[in-house]
Amino acid sequence: MQKDELLEFLSQNEIEFEYQGKDALALTKVADLEKATSQEIAFFNDPKRKEQLKSTQAGLVILKAEFSDLTVCNRLIVKNPYYVYALLAQKFNPLPSQKGIHPSAVVDGSVVVPASCYIGPNVVIESGVLLGEGCQISAGCYLGKNVTLGKNCYLGPNVVIMNDCVLGDEVILQAGCVIGGEGFGFAPQAGQWIRIPQIGRVIIGNHVSIGNNTTIDRGTLQDTVIEDDCIIDNLVHIAHNVKIGQGSAIAAQTGFAGSSQVGKQCIFAGQAGVVGHLKISDGVMVMAKAGVTHSLKQPGSYSGFPAIPTGEWQKNTVRAKNLQKMALQIKDLEQSIKELKNQLEEK
Amino acid sequence: MQKDELLEFLSQNEIEFEYQGKDALALTKVADLEKATSQEIAFFNDPKRKEQLKSTQAGLVILKAEFSDLTVCNRLIVKNPYYVYALLAQKFNPLPSQKGIHPSAVVDGSVVVPASCYIGPNVVIESGVLLGEGCQISAGCYLGKNVTLGKNCYLGPNVVIMNDCVLGDEVILQAGCVIGGEGFGFAPQAGQWIRIPQIGRVIIGNHVSIGNNTTIDRGTLQDTVIEDDCIIDNLVHIAHNVKIGQGSAIAAQTGFAGSSQVGKQCIFAGQAGVVGHLKISDGVMVMAKAGVTHSLKQPGSYSGFPAIPTGEWQKNTVRAKNLQKMALQIKDLEQSIKELKNQLEEK
Amino acid sequence: MQKDELLEFLSQNEIEFEYQGKDALALTKVADLEKATSQEIAFFNDPKRKEQLKSTQAGLVILKAEFSDLTVCNRLIVKNPYYVYALLAQKFNPLPSQKGIHPSAVVDGSVVVPASCYIGPNVVIESGVLLGEGCQISAGCYLGKNVTLGKNCYLGPNVVIMNDCVLGDEVILQAGCVIGGEGFGFAPQAGQWIRIPQIGRVIIGNHVSIGNNTTIDRGTLQDTVIEDDCIIDNLVHIAHNVKIGQGSAIAAQTGFAGSSQVGKQCIFAGQAGVVGHLKISDGVMVMAKAGVTHSLKQPGSYSGFPAIPTGEWQKNTVRAKNLQKMALQIKDLEQSIKELKNQLEEK
């Protein structure tokens, strides 16, 4: 990528920027600040890495104005360096865009596969499936009856999408995830569990990304919904009838029990959990391993089990570390009072 | 479904009921109370939804006698509405019952596939496998050597069953689950881990349901056993030599370490854990995120880590929220005693 | 296995031993101490099972010298019975060693498959893959472009290895695990998440074992590294750029957030978690469900959330169980002081 290409790319993406450096650029890929060579693009975001910025050999560093004096390399000064880096990394590392249907794929005769799509080896596509333009379906995937995919979806190997589920445009499903499996719906009767068929769907919006081996169950009667712009990590469990609001991010191994409603722009750190039938407001952040047991009506950060506002949790946690000390203080107090009583009686 | 069909179905299933309503019924499916139309069946179980019951347009509402006055719709009055609803939902939404062997399936020549079975695309069935009548094996499944399936088992796509494992009748394995993988058996020696081949099996009883991407490891020398009527949710881990007793229910992301023995009719909420070599009595309920670190000899509810009876845990949890307050109380007490001492000395 | 074969096997493996028993041995497999017959090998390691040792009918018992008087069976006396048992169990139960390429496999024309390898049904191998001698690739596996496998690797069914990842020799990947999936790398911008392509690899050393449905994400720019001799259980999540040091053991459902560096010979019990960008010293043991939130510079055992040294955690846990009692003690103290004050005033 030469300088004029870079400037055109930034302009196309409506990025405000200032460029400081040489006119001769020949950039071939993105790289880590510490190891980048004169043909590579790095970014600087973390003030703790100032020494690496000073010594970097990168061909271009993307950074904020306040740090631009720390390097003599070519500089691209922007407001959100990480974002601009992401765009350039995507430019240099596009998602696969193969075309054609592998002869080993088993595609029902009723399905129209656009010429812009790729259907990999051993993929199985059942009747009634609708595929948008440019979809990439990797080896071993299964698409059940009447599944709908929007444009430019990418499915990693061995992904399963069960019947009737709907994906928007530019949805990414990493390897091994299961969308629309039957959830945990059973009626107890005389020591047995009677299965409740799950006849809702999973509806996934646009620009959603779902991680490896994650499971999202179909709704019982209505639908499980993942709104636009959500990102979901590996080994996450989302139960039937859950709704995840626009732009929420869910880290690995987090779980949502049935019918929970999560607002927009929420963040869940790893191994968090949410019990069933709760409502979680927009803008909530749930910290690692926290367990939400009541509806959260206010945005903000929550920690612990049961989850409480993180500020309170931190105070309690500090105290909890001192429980041993508190117990000894109480013992001392009891002793002091005993002595006082004795002294009082003596007087 | 017309009224006479409904009555016959209830009679076949030995349901005690009272019907109140019109003779003309034309029911086509089950639906949610709030959205059901005059051709749909809904059920009412949750007193919080009384307003929905009053306004429902359902063609039939299944409910308890005490609520029957709240609606003018056709009513089916039974003792356990959720159970009767489940039976009707199954009637309207049966499991798949395809037949035949897809030409892309790889079935060892030694295996007899009953004509009532369905073997989907790209399924691999190794030598010595025994299949009961009516089994449905979805695309991409793998059945290792000498696996045995009872009657009417349903396997979702990409399920793996390793060699020698045994399933009873009417077992449901959801997509991507792995039955009989090698567990975590290694002998430490000079900074290395020496693999212990796991030569036991997984034995699964009748009417068991296992969730998406769940893993159940084979036994080391003896077997891992899941007894009849158990239901197991997504992303659950069951280690080697574990035994889960009849009718137990295990919610998502729960884990059992090796050789734990779980009694009958136990319930584990999501993200719970059980350490190895414990015995858990019949009728134990373990709450979400709880960690069981000692054998539990009494039925009842347990919470926290280490898990204790839920009643005790709740009291401690309330106190834990007040730790900051307790610390201040102690400080006040220390101050009071100081003052008392001074006053005493003055006298 | 006869006696001379046994002695030769021990000698080949450089085991110091003493044999006490008959010359006529005809051993056919390994078995549990309690159930072993006269043709089976058992081991004794657990002093709690002395009664089983006294009554065992095993054809050979592997045990330490101090217990050799407790049985009259043939005895193999060694320093580490579990290790010697593991070696013999492997001898009797070798990993599969099939050969050939199943006709349904889809192997890119550029790939040289050594005659000693097995490529199972429906396996997909993309261009540029390098396979060591003796690799066993089970049904339904996917190996992306330029993946490298060392010698004698075993992949269970439906394993996914994404492009460019590298495995050493004798690596075991259990069914359904995903190596090299894209991790959770996104830049926030105006309420959306912009994907950061993950262009590092996963590098796995020699003698590593990875469990069923576990996910190990590729590095962002550099690599995710699993060093030699690590063992990793089922449903574990290892995020991008993590490094796990030599010989570490990670139990089921544990998770590591991005860029954490774990030392050598560490042990993580089940459902543990480690937040991102931490350094964990060699020789650390993290107990079940613990959450590591700060770097751990000292070897030793850690528990709780946030994780602290296990000794401290245990003291606090005992106190935490008594919080209710402590609250009552404080109440009593307050009452006592009130009374003292009154008495003092009266004087």
UniProtKB/TrEMBL annotation, chains A, B, C:
Q: In which pathway does it act?
A: Bacterial outer membrane biogenesis; LPS lipid A biosynthesis
Q: SUPFAM superfamilies under this entry?
A: Trimeric LpxA-like enzymes
Task: Write down the chemical reaction(s) this protein catalyses.
Answer: a UDP-3-O-[(3R)-3-hydroxyacyl]-alpha-D-glucosamine + a (3R)-hydroxyacyl-[ACP] = a UDP-2-N,3-O-bis[(3R)-3-hydroxyacyl]-alpha-D-glucosamine + holo-[ACP] + H(+)
Domain UDP-3-O-[3-hydroxymyristoyl] glucosamine N-acyltransferase non-repeat region, chain residue ranges per copy: 26-90
Keyword Ion transport set for record: no
User: What does UniProt give as the signal peptide span?
Assistant: none
Query: What InterPro entries does the annotation carry?
Result: Hexapep, LpxD, Trimer_LpxA-like_sf, UDP_GlcNAc_AcTrfase_non-rep
Query: What EC numbers are recorded for this enzyme?
Result: 2.3.1.191
Q: What class of enzyme is it?
A: transferase
Q: Could you tell me the keywords of this UniProt record?
A: Acyltransferase, Lipid A biosynthesis, Lipid biosynthesis, Lipid metabolism, Repeat, Transferase
- Name the domain of life: Bacteria
GO terms for biological process?
lipid A biosynthetic process
> Which CDD domains does the UniProt record give?
LbH_LpxD
Extract one GO cellular component term from the record. Answer: membrane
The keyword Lipid metabolism is assigned to this record: yes
Question: Which sites are catalytic?
Answer: H240
What GO MF annotations does this protein's record show? Answer: N-acyltransferase activity; UDP-3-O-[(3R)-3-hydroxyacyl]-glucosamine N-acyltransferase activity
* Subunit comment: Homotrimer.
Q: What does this protein do?
A: Catalyzes the N-acylation of UDP-3-O-acylglucosamine using 3-hydroxyacyl-ACP as the acyl donor. Is involved in the biosynthesis of lipid A, a phosphorylated glycolipid that anchors the lipopolysaccharide to the outer membrane of the cell.
Q: Which family does it belong to?
A: Belongs to the transferase hexapeptide repeat family. LpxD subfamily.
Q: Please identify the protein, giving its name as recorded.
A: UDP-3-O-acylglucosamine N-acyltransferase
Originating species = Thiosulfativibrio zosterae
